[in-house]
Specification:
The complex is a heterotrimer of chains A (424), B (295) and C (332).
Chain A (H helix, E strand, L loop, with lengths): L1 H16 L11 E7 L6 H20 L4 E3 L2 E3 L1 E7 L4 H13 L5 E3 L4 H13 L3 E4 L15 E3 L9 H10 L5 E7 L2 H17 L2 E8 L7 H9 L4 E5 L2 H13 L6 E5 L5 H7 L7 E4 L9 H7 L8 H11 L8 H20 L4 H10 L2 E3 L2 E3 L13 E6 L2 E6 L15 H5 L8
Parallel strand pairs in A: 1-4, 1-5, 5-6, 6-7, 8-9, 8-10, 10-11
Antiparallel strand pairs in A: 2-3, 12-15, 13-14, 15-16
Chain B lengths: L1 H33 L6 H19 L3 H27 L4 H23 L12 E3 L4 E3 H23 L1 H11 L1 H6 L4 H26 L9 H14 L5 H22 L7 H19 L9
Antiparallel strand pairs in B: 1-2
Helix pairs in contact in B: 1-5, 1-8, 1-9, 1-10, 2-3, 2-4, 2-8, 2-9, 3-4, 3-8, 5-6, 5-8, 6-8, 9-10, 9-11, 10-11
Chain C lengths: L9 H17 L4 H24 L7 H18 L8 H25 L4 H9 L1 H11 L9 E2 L1 H8 L1 H31 L2 H11 L1 H6 L4 H26 L3 E2 L1 H4 L3 H13 L6 H19 L4 H15 L3 H10 L10
Antiparallel strand pairs in C: 1-2
The chains are: A alpha/beta (424), B mainly alpha (295), C mainly alpha (332).
Chain lengths: 424, 295, 332
């Protein structure tokens, strides 16, 4: 019996020791990523992995590798599944840093998981790039190795308000109904402040809890306040529910904009005609007009694949008929930012690359990129998307738009009779 | 204004409550007969929801027809899980069945995820609406409500009027006694378990008729928790109690929002959820057999 | 049994923890993996104090960890302005974490401990969610925005010390909590509480008839277990990850993980949570590396097989096998 106990110990010791068998070749620059491939952020995680793979491929084949000194070094991408859980995030970052010897860590999706990994990256003094944590609070903590590609939450709905302020200056009754989560509350705060600046009257302001399955009571109260426009949302699932139940209750408004939901193709697939005319802000959308020519016009250096090339590469690395969304674009653009950072620093040393990234300004298919002192993204602006006849049309800002906005959107009764949102 | 809103919410609440009640009957039936708490309850609701989605989107089959289909699929699933796991654990400590049913739930979720992916889906079955003035009811919600009531009545009749039904009732009263009287208790267990799962999967169809969006492999968790509160309201071991518990719960969930909205500086929606857990604890404290004693 | 022999089972337990610590300390790249394993072991050990001995399943267990996290978070964010307190803020935080989890466990216990078996499980299943909705709904402690306090921690301890606390000392504290929970378990097992609770687990009515004050012992075990959870939340969550968001710290999955760990290892045994935590943590880690995305699909049937075929858990089986041999003293 003693022997079997000892045996168990030996097996454990062996399993634990097995952790450090693999080694990394020195002639590669390795990106490490505790990706969310299962659990609650699986959807966004899959997109991010696809986007990163696409851009790594572009750098290695089209671009020819990362220029450090007089050598072109290829990129390598190493990722594990963190199950969207914080315990796993830290242990995987530990492995990526010491076993796989990666040169940079790409943070997992969501502000919470990004925050979980930050102290570990900080203590290992390794660059930590955030493409999925939008909370402004991350950058108030004094981390020195963090750099953001996704834009901060407070700016999500500013563009929508600007647009309506311009095209319908008399529609001022605004209802805000967001999910009660750290991220959505920050969007709401930004929207509230901006709305007051533009002279909107906030007639309704409520939140609903995460994981809600029925919004009827909240929407009934919203209906009574008779708003012209409704801004809200939080995640994909509640956004879908929000739109659906507004239709169920015949709540007709001139404009409805939902964060994180309305821009995804699955949103229209689930709601079909009910989603006509519904808008949503997005970091990026397929169809945006960022190009090498536009970069030249604005005086920014351009790097990376064109939008169509990105799409083709993305499809090569994802099995299903998946289209890249902003999660993929953010993660991909982050690869490009890192490449430029290394080239600018002339080294893979995290401190130097971090410093170089602080001074970097460029444009890619994702749009502008520039961070402030704390590492927060300030160079990227959001676009607003509207569903028109089953297609996503970018309606704001003027510089990126692919079509005019349909305002006011058709009523739900009209939509049920198959009236499409076509701008006049 | 206040009463209009409250009235509107209560109408919505009672319609939703009927569906909630129906979605809990399976849980109570299984607990009543087998004394097994099905922690994987929500996963079976999810299976029903996906079945509806698949039948409607791919084959164009009306959700109403999906109800019996889901019921039969659920009975089959119930039998499989009963004979592979539950039967071996009936005499084991509670812990074992709690963990087993939980694992079954996870297994179903992951299998569905493997087949359909983790995307949130929905379908659009347009059958019109009725405007009641104070609120609007889509016909699909109304059908879901009527369907739930009908199923509850059918189950009641089945228990009262058939031999199998009365056999199960006698097992609930006293399983040893039933055995002595020549009732095959093992058979009664298997039947009740598969019936309970069948009801639960069918309730997934009704729930999507009520809320046809947000269908994804992990949607069941929210309903598991609600089902426990409802089951306790109804006395835990009685399927009809659960049905009335659902009605009460729907009323509380929707009605209390209007009241909480008058408290300044709070989020009324989250408080309605908090209230349901307070109710759970209070009932268990003062009257663990439930406030509604429908036998 | 001789007085000293009573505590022999602590030898393999502490040896294993020491072994893990030394391995992590000396082997490059092991630290973060070990910290995850230690967290699972500590979670199992703490959970086992109540569930293992009584057989009662507390689904709301994570709520105690949640309020513990809040205790530490509140202490740091609210006291940071009093500079003279210095590192004492952390000590106050631990005190607050224990006090808050104790209070919550008394409130929950007052209702739930009157109930038995399945009723107990159902009474506790909503505690974590309920508490989360109370915090969000009534906007207590910043409501849903939660608290992020790396900056505050830097201010209290200085940047270097704070970083060391998050990535090193917090893990050492988790180790200490795991060991403490193991020690407490054994003390309880070897004292009147353990015998009373074993009698209760076998047959609660008989235990009552025999004149054992089961309620008193149930409460003691329940509060102890909750208190350890509070400490674990304060270290493994608040100190290791300096933020707190309500939906994360009240996530029922941690309770489920605790149940799995205890069941894998063997409920009511001292070494069970250790073995269960290691097996669970290591398999989870390797699955996430070699089969990303399929962990749960593999775990679920494995657990089913274990429950049906080996309900005693790994240590339970070892215990049966070592009966009558010299090893008996060490395995419990």
């Amino acid at each position: 019996m003693k022997r079997s106990l000892v045996g168990i110990f030996v097996v454990f010791a062996f399993l634990l020791a097995g952790v450090s068998f693999a080694g990394a070749a020195p002639d590669k620059i390795v990106i490490g990523h505790p990706a969310c491939l299962s659990g609650k952020y699986a959807k966004a995680g899959e997109q991010a992995v696809g986007g990163i793979k696409a851009c790594v491929e572009w750098v290695n084949t089209t671009y020819g590798g990362v220029q450090v000194g007089d050598k072109k070094i290829p990129l390598k991408y190493k990722y594990y599944d963190c199950e969207s859980k914080k315990e796993v995030v830290t242990s995987l970052i530990g492995r990526l840093v010491s076993v796989d010897k990666v040169n940079v860590i790409f943070a997992p999706y969501s502000s919470g998981l990004t925050l979980r990994g930050a102290p570990v990256a900080e203590s290992r003094r390794i660059l930590y790039m955030d493409h999925g944590g939008a909370s402004n609070a991350i950058f108030r903590q004094g981390f020195r190795y963090i750099v953001q590609t996704i834009g901060p939450a407070t700016r999500y709905h500013e563009g929508t308000l600007d647009m309506i302020h311009k095209i319908a200056p008399n529609d001022k009754r605004l209802a805000l109904a967001y999910e009660d989560s750290e991220f959505a509350k920050m969007v709401m705060e930004g929207a509230r402040d901006h709305a007051k600046k533009l002279g909107f009257e906030i007639v309704f302001e409520r939140t609903y809890p995460k994981g809600v399955t029925d919004l009827t009571p909240l929407l009934s109260a919203l209906k009574v306040s008779k708003p012209d426009l409704v801004l809200g949302g939080g995640h994909f699932e509640d956004g879908q529910l929000f739109n659906r139940q507004m239709a169920d209750l015949n709540i007709d408004v001139n404009a409805l904009s939902l964060i994180a939901a309305a821009t995804l193709p699955a949103f229209y697939r689930a709601l079909t005609t009910m989603a006509e005319g519904v808008m949503g802000p997005s970091h990026w959308e397929f169809g945006v007009k960022y190009s090498a020519e536009q970069a030249k016009a604005t005086g920014l250096p351009w790097i990376g694949p064109s939008q169509d090339q990105f799409m083709a590469l993305f499809k090569k690395f994802t099995k299903k008929d998946m289209l890249p969304d902003y999660h993929a674009a953010e993660a991909g653009a982050q690869v490009l930012a890192y490449v430029l950072g290394v080239q600018k620093a002339g080294s893979m040393d995290s401190t130097k690359v971090r410093q170089a990234l602080g001074e970097l300004k460029f444009m890619s298919f994702y749009g502008g990129w520039k961070v402030d002192e704390s590492g927060m993204q300030v160079g990227h602006s959001m676009v607003d998307v509207q569903w028109q006849d089953g297609k996503r049309v970018i309606v704001w800002p003027e510089a990126a738009k692919t079509g005019k906005a349909c305002y006011p959107m058709p009523t739900f009764e009209e939509k049920a009779k198959d009236v499409k949102a076509i701008p006049k | 204004m206040f009463f209009e809103q409250l009235g509107g919410n209560l109408i919505q609440g009672i319609v939703l409550g009927a569906v909630y009640g129906m979605a809990t009957m399976g849980l109570s039936l299984i607990f009543g007969v087998l004394k097994v708490v099905n922690v994987g309850h929500g996963a079976f609701i999810m299976v029903g929801a996906f079945l509806t989605l698949f039948l409607f989107s791919s084959l164009g089959i009306n959700p109403i027809i999906a109800i019996p289909v889901a019921f039969i699929v659920g009975m089959g699933l119930g039998l499989i899980f009963y004979y592979t796991t539950i039967r071996k654990l009936i005499k084991a400590p509670e812990l074992a069945t709690l963990l087993a049913t939980f694992s079954i739930g996870v297994l179903l979720e992951e299998l569905v995820k493997l087949i359909f992916g983790s995307e949130f889906r929905g379908y659009n079955w347009v059958v019109g609406k009725i405007d009641l003035g104070i609120t609007v009811l889509p016909m699909s919600k109304l059908y879901a409500c009527i369907g739930s009531v009908l199923i509850a009545v059918l189950l009641y009749l089945w228990f009262k009027k058939t031999r199998a039904g009365s056999a199960i009732r006698s097992v609930v009263e006293d399983s040893e006694g039933a055995r002595v009287c020549g009732i095959n208790v093992g058979w009664a267990y298997a039947l009740s378990f598969s019936l309970g799962i069948g009801l639960t999967v069918a309730s997934g169809v009704l729930l999507t008729m009520f809320i046809p969006v947000g269908i994804n492999p992990y949607m069941g968790g929210a309903y598991t928790l609600k089902a426990f509160v409802i089951a306790v309201l109804g006395g835990l071991a009685s399927p009809y109690g659960a049905f009335f518990g659902g009605l009460v719960f729907g009323l509380i969930e929707n009605g209390s929002y209007t009241l909480f909205a008058y408290i300044p500086g709070v989020e009324p929606f989250a408080l309605t959820r908090f209230l349901s857990f307070v109710i759970l604890l209070v009932i268990l404290l003062i009257r663990p057999t439930g406030i509604l004693r429908a036998k | 049994m001789k007085q000293t022999q009573k505590y022999f089972p602590l030898i393999p337990l502490f040896a294993a923890y020491l072994f893990m610590f030394l391995l992590a300390e000396n082997k490059e790249g092991m630290w973060q993996l070990m910290s995850m394993l230690l967290f699972y072991c500590a979670l199992g050990q703490a959970f086992n104090v109540f569930m293992g001995m009584t057989g009662y399943v507390d689904f709301g267990y994570v709520a105690f960890m949640g309020v513990g996290t809040y205790g530490m978070a509140l202490s740091i964010t609210r006291l940071v302005q009093y500079e003279f307190l210095g590192a004492w803020i952390l000590v106050i935080g631990f005190g607050l974490a224990m006090a808050m989890s104790t209070l919550l466990s008394m409130a929950v216990g007052a209702v739930a401990l009157r109930l038995r078996g399945a009723y107990f499980a159902i009474a506790t299943i909503g505690v974590n969610e309920g508490f989360r909705f109370l915090i969000e709904g009534a906007r207590i402690w910043n409501g849903s925005e939660g608290m992020i306090f790396t900056a505050d921690l830097n201010k209290i301890l200085g940047r270097e010390t704070a970083a060391a606390l998050c990535t090193y000392w917090a893990d050492i504290m988790v180790l200490a909590i795991a060991a403490l929970a193991g020690f407490v378990s054994l003390v309880y097992m070897r004292s009147k509480i353990g015998y009373a609770l074993t009698a209760l687990r076998e047959d609660e009515d008989a235990a009552k008839v025999m004149g054992i004050n089961v309620t008193k012992f149930k409460i003691i075990a329940f509060i102890t277990s909750a208190c350890l959870a509070g400490l674990l939340g304060a270290t493994a969550w608040a100190l290791k990850t300096p933020y707190v968001f309500p939906p994360e710290v009240f996530d029922i999955h941690y309770t489920i993980e605790a149940i799995i760990i205890v069941m894998l290892g063997g409920a009511g045994t001292l070494l069970g949570p250790l073995v269960g935590g290691l097996v669970y943590g290591i398999s989870k880690y390797y699955l996430s590396i070699f089969l990303p995305g399929f962990q749960l699909l593999i775990f679920a049937p494995v657990i089913l097989v274990i429950i049906v075929l080996f309900p005693e858990g790994i240590v339970g089986m070892l215990k049966a096998k070592t009966k009558g041999t010299g090893m008996e003293r060490f395995v419990i």
